[in-house]
Amino acid sequence: MATEFEKQFVNDIKRAHVHVAWVGDESSDVHVVIWPTWSGLSDFEKSFAEEVVSWGHTATAVDLYGVGNNPTELQDKADTMMALVAEKGPLTALQSDICQEIAESHPNKKLVHVGFCLGGRLAIEAGLHIPSSKGAASFHGLMNFYRPESSEDANREAKFIIFNGYQDPMVDVAAADQARADLDDMGLDWQFVDFGQTKHSFMLPSANAPQDGHAFSAAASARGRNALRFFLSELAS
């Protein structure tokens, strides 16, 4: 009998990932996998994939929930996210299956994960738990990602960069400190970048609820993009 997780996220789910190819003589050997916010695949992730490709790479924006399944109301988004991340095993298996499908479509490429909010957490988890991953970048991601059972189980092939708003109410100082300590204890190559005077959702132009701790920041967005571009070029070398 199928589990509730399988019914909601696996069985009979038709996904339409958006693959974006480099138009030119030759792209880099990096393929960027873009994990969406709790809203699911949207124009934001698609346009970000196009920007990443303009830097010389290839990219896939992940259709996380499947065609026609994106939640629209706040409570539905929260409930869907909580169901998705409720257990480590099913979540990791789903991410692994999605990444395997992407890898088969883009052979001989290094998979590097980039994500926003929920997707930021998923990017870190993909980097930690999927051996084919070579890097992960999280933008205003959640720090309650599943840790490996031991340091030996962590994917040491991946490098990590985490972009965080210092005023993000969803990532308090204790959570950020614990994430840094855990990544360091695993012996991983990591960077953690705090943006001052910056709240949650700082990459999303539609975010405009500073009273709730969510607000777009043009400065942090630009700085994050520049740092990500250098990070990807480092992995491609």
From TrEMBL:
<keyword id="KW-0378">Hydrolase</keyword>
<dbReference type="InterPro" id="IPR051049">
    <property type="entry name" value="Dienelactone_hydrolase-like"/>
</dbReference>
<dbReference type="InterPro" id="IPR002925">
    <property type="entry name" value="Dienelactn_hydro"/>
</dbReference>
<feature type="domain" description="Dienelactone hydrolase">
    <location>
        <begin position="31"/>
        <end position="215"/>
    </location>
</feature>
<dbReference type="Pfam" id="PF01738">
    <property type="entry name" value="DLH"/>
</dbReference>
<protein>
    <submittedName>
        <fullName>Dienelactone hydrolase family protein</fullName>
    </submittedName>
</protein>
<dbReference type="InterPro" id="IPR029058">
    <property type="entry name" value="AB_hydrolase_fold"/>
</dbReference>
<dbReference type="GO" id="GO:0016787">
    <property type="term" value="F:hydrolase activity"/>
</dbReference>
